[in-house]
Specification:
By secondary structure, this protein is α/β, with parallel strands linked by helices. The protein has nine helices and ten strands. It has a single domain (about 5-165, about 195-225, about 270-275), classed as Vaccinia Virus protein VP39 (Rossmann fold, 3-Layer(aba) Sandwich).
């Protein structure tokens, strides 16, 4: 429905979890340590990867509200979270997961955050989070989003926002052309107006700083190699080629995609960001 398949999200999950910046994640965990059962809103949750990475770092009881536009991905999220947990049950329509000593209450809602962001603050969360999501939204939406969180003094943590840095090894002559075309596609409308793409982290940084927040960023690149991640490298390269084909000639794209089989390494840049109200 939004163009992200459960298969693609499953393929990238291990690399995503390995790439997340640990220091920043621990700062988030410290920040939430004083709350007995924090309410955490995960925007564009897909199949629940962000919960599976972050929840183990947080306290014994947590309440997650998973939001996505795509009902199919939300169904996958519920099924995959049940499989991930040691034990799961449904209580008053919430999914309750037991993982080690932790108890996680999980609610899922199909919501277009471009239209219905405000209703999510009827019960203000202790954290709003998102993974691999913010390069899809527009600069204008980021401004309104940050203002909404600042109004409620809500901390914000997002990971794996694409930052435009890519190095494919060995290099090929079409790399520059294809990357430039891919970046033009990154700026196209993904449902929020022209997308911020690789500028998203900078926009978030500015918007939250303007709201008086302390903003921390840290790199979280995918470090891929053909031995460990052959399927992910191929699928990623094909996806980049398909997106770039909107803005580059077919020969360059075909040559670039043919070369995927010879690539040994790829570094794909991402940024993580944690923004919190300055105490006092
Ligand atoms: C790249 S995926 C990331 C999924 C998940 N966070 C992860 O890390 O695996 C982007 C997600 O944003 C969701 N999405 C896109 N537009 C949305 C919108 N307007 N409202 C809510 N979710 C949206 C997609 O359905 C998809 O699940």
């Amino acid at each position: 429905m939004t163009g992200f398949s459960a298969d693609w999200l499953a393929l990238r999950e291990e690399a995503d979890h390995a790439a997340r910046n640990e220091d920043l994640a621990l700062k988030v965990a410290n920040h939430l340590a004083g709350h007995d059962c924090p309410l955490i809103l995960d925007l564009g949750c897909g199949t629940g990867s962000n919960l599976r990475a972050l929840a183990p770092l947080l306290g014994l009881e947590q309440h997650w509200h998973l939001i996505d536009l795509d009902p199919d991905l939300l169904s996958h999220a519920k099924a995959q979270l049940r499989d991930w947990a040691d034990y799961a049950e449904v209580v008053h329509s919430s999914l309750v997961l037991y993982w080690g000593e932790q108890k996680l209450t999980v609610d899922c809602s199909q919501i277009d955050v471009n239209k219905d962001l405000e209703i999510l603050f009827n019960k203000p969360p202790q954290l709003v989070t998102a993974a691999a999501f913010f390069d899809l939204v527009s600069e204008k939406w980021i401004t309104g989003f940050a203002q909404q969180l600042v109004r409620h003094s809500t901390p914000f943590y997002t990971v794996l926002t694409y930052d435009g840095e890519e190095q494919w090894q060995p290099p090929y002559p079409e790399d520059r052309t294809v990357l430039a075309a891919f970046h033009r596609h990154q700026a196209s409308d993904k449902g929020f107006g022209p997308a911020a793409g690789p500028k998203a982290t900078q926009c978030l940084q500015q918007a939250f700083s303007l709201g008086g927040y302390e903003v921390m960023t840290a790199p979280s690149p995918w470090m891929l190699n053909a031995q460990e991640h052959p399927d992910l490298m191929l699928a990623l390269g094909r996806g980049i080629g398909e997106a770039a084909a909107h803005f580059a000639g077919p020969t360059a794209i075909t040559d670039w995609q043919d070369a995927l089989h010879y690539r040994r390494h790829a570094v794909i840049g991402h940024q993580d960001l944690f923004a919190r109200p300055i105490a006092g």
